[in-house]
Amino acid sequence: xxxxxxxxxxxxxxxxxxxxxxxxxxxxxxxxxxxxxxxxxxxxxxxxxxxxxxxxxxxxxxxxxxxxxxxxxxxxxxxxxxxxxxxxxxxxxxxxxxxxxxxxxxxxxxxxxxxxxxxxxxxxxxxxxxxxxxxxxxxxxxxxxxxxxxxxxxxxxxxxxxxxxxxxxxxxxxxxxxxxxxxxxxxxxxxxxxxxxxxxxxxxxxxxxxxxxxxxxxxxxxxxxxxxxxxxxxxxxxxxxxxxxxxxx
Length: 249
Ligand code: SAM
What we know:
The model has no long low-confidence stretch (mean pLDDT 93). The chain is built from eight helices and eleven strands. The longest helix is centred in the middle third of the chain and has 17 residues. The chain is elongated and about 75 Å long. Strand 5, helix 3 and strand 6 form a beta-alpha-beta unit. Strands 5, 6, 7, 8, 9, 10 and 11 form a seven-stranded parallel beta sheet that branches. It has a four-stranded antiparallel beta sheet with strand order 1-4-3-2. It is of the alpha/beta class. It binds S-adenosylmethionine. The site of S-adenosylmethionine (SAM) has 17 residues, from helix 8. The site of S-adenosylmethionine has 17 residues, from helix 8.
């Protein structure tokens, strides 16, 4: 049952109207019964009925509950830096969908230049966009946008992930969906699984980069029959991963 955020702060909640009727008549609630209330934003609490009088239910908070809007599968989106403000779009949309972090990188065909010394403002802006998107999506954590890496620096980081998917439009064999099915059935039991998603720039990845990625442990995967824009591919792949893990829709 939803209560207002103001009510939610109190130790006693009063429920009236349709919800109170539902508790007393449909659920046959009585003093001592417990149920969960939500502030409709991000918090829940377990409450216990203390009185039902004249169509109104009064309940005491027993315990505040942890309610998470975070996905169980932790996906990092590594995006080869696109032109213009497309990186901002990637960060904003993928934060809404559920990415946990971002690693911009420079690959062979990256068109834009990135000078870390001169462009700290840009990194700051990306992190601000992640924060605002996280707030609007009621995320519990703000994804971090890392300092852009060179392709060669990114390769050794593959070992920190349970799966690395190299999105490659020229891939004729494995599709992301086929790669995800066995992965989802063998998730680590003791910690959240970590996935790294690699998306190329406007001109795509080179064959050599594909070879190097596979050698470093990535699976080259297709995302279907159509070629997606570089800023679209990450969103689509991320949504597919979270869908397969039962987190979307
Ligand atoms: N020329 C367009 C642009 O300027 O955005 C499309 C670029 S596409 C080559 C950019 C990246 O998106 C690729 O390197 C790949 O990572 C990903 N991508 C796009 N479509 C894909 C597909 N059907 N399967 C796998 N990856 C794809």
